[in-house]
Amino acid sequence: MDARLQRIAAARGKRMVHLETLEQQLQALDCVPAGEHARVLEQRLQTSWILRIESAEAMAHYRGRNLEAWLASIDRMEGLDEDARAIEQRSRRCLLEDRNARWIGQLETLFQDGPCLVAVGAVHLVGPEGLLAALRRDGYKVEAMPL
To answer: What's the distance, Cα to Cα, between the start and end of the chain in Å?
Structure first.
């Protein structure tokens, strides 16, 4: 999807700004040690039927544009014990919340220059620490546009 959007923007002569570098993306992934991720993965594999159900639900929520329900499903962390849930919560903080907090200032600066298209993973948009909530808190009017 990223490559496709970049090709479309380039073909139309649009300026592209990246919210983070590849190195920053990898740092977010490395926030939780691999051994801890492995513990979570092991539990996920032991209850793989839950993961299949959650994957189907995630696609339904995404297609139905019900991102809040998708985030709620992610937050339930079905099939994980308390330790694995804590690991997943730390991972979420690094992958979503910390990155959103870093991006919001850049986005608002871009918006001051005029209209622009922002492409981020859908789950970055929702929740109390999501980009849409942050923009609303900062006085922006946020509304869905039909595609």
So the answer is: 16
For residue range 35-54, list pLDDT tens digits in order: 999 999 999 999 889 888 98
**pTM higher than 0.85, yes or no?**
no
Q: Using one digit for the tens of pLDDT, what is the confidence trace for 59-76?
A: 999 899 898 898 898 888
How far are the Cα atoms of 50, 83, 96, 130, 131 from residue 121, in angstroms, in the given order? 23, 27, 9, 11, 11
What tokens were used for 127?
């929740």
Distance CA 97, CA 90 (A): 10
d(CA 125, CA 52): 24
Contact in structure between 94 and 30 (CB atoms under 8 Å):
no
Which amino acid does the sequence have at 2? D
Cβ-based neighbour number of residue 9 at 10 Å: 14
